[in-house]
């Protein structure tokens, strides 16, 4: 598997699938979730609504992943995953790792060869970047997947530098 790091906006990435750091409701939010729905258009939310009306009536559990169309984005699919909120009192790193492995598992079911990830849980959900980078890189490296390219799309220079140091 080829692992690459880029600094930029994930909504601009050409990849078979881009991953969204969503929340359980799948109804959109701020951060990368807001950007994906804004730029991708209403088609994505429409599919999310159908998922909520069907299989995910109670919402998508933390650490799980599900795919929709990518609407107007230059990707074929958006894989929505729900990161854990960072906690000082409880070790939730297995749930964060699960976001990466479950997203890759969904990518495999789609036949996606290239997948772009944001740094899940490192914004509104408060996960320290260095620890999140360690967990993300380890999870992706150890994943049993047919995906041949994983790209981490880091929003700012500091996040990029942290991932680069870890890599
Ligand atoms: N491209 C790439 N990375 C981005 C972009 C972008 N366009 N925008 C932000 N980031 P966050 P979370 C980075 O808050 O912490 C939403 O409301 C950002 O700098 O998007 O998992 C959801 O609905 C940070 O490093 O996701 C949930 O309620 C990283 O993406 C909640 O936020 C993740 O930040 C999820 O929180």
UniProtKB/TrEMBL annotation:
Superkingdom to which the source organism belongs: Bacteria
Xref: Gene3D superfamilies: Leucine Aminopeptidase, subunit E, domain 1
Family annotation (SUPFAM superfamilies): Macro domain-like (SSF52949)
Domain named Macro: residues: 1-167
Pfam families hit by this protein: Macro
NCBIfam families cross-referenced by the UniProt entry: PRK00431.1-6 (NF001664)
Protein name in the entry: O-acetyl-ADP-ribose deacetylase
Organism expressing this protein natively: Nonomuraea composti
Lineage: Bacteria, Bacillati, Actinomycetota, Actinomycetes, Streptosporangiales
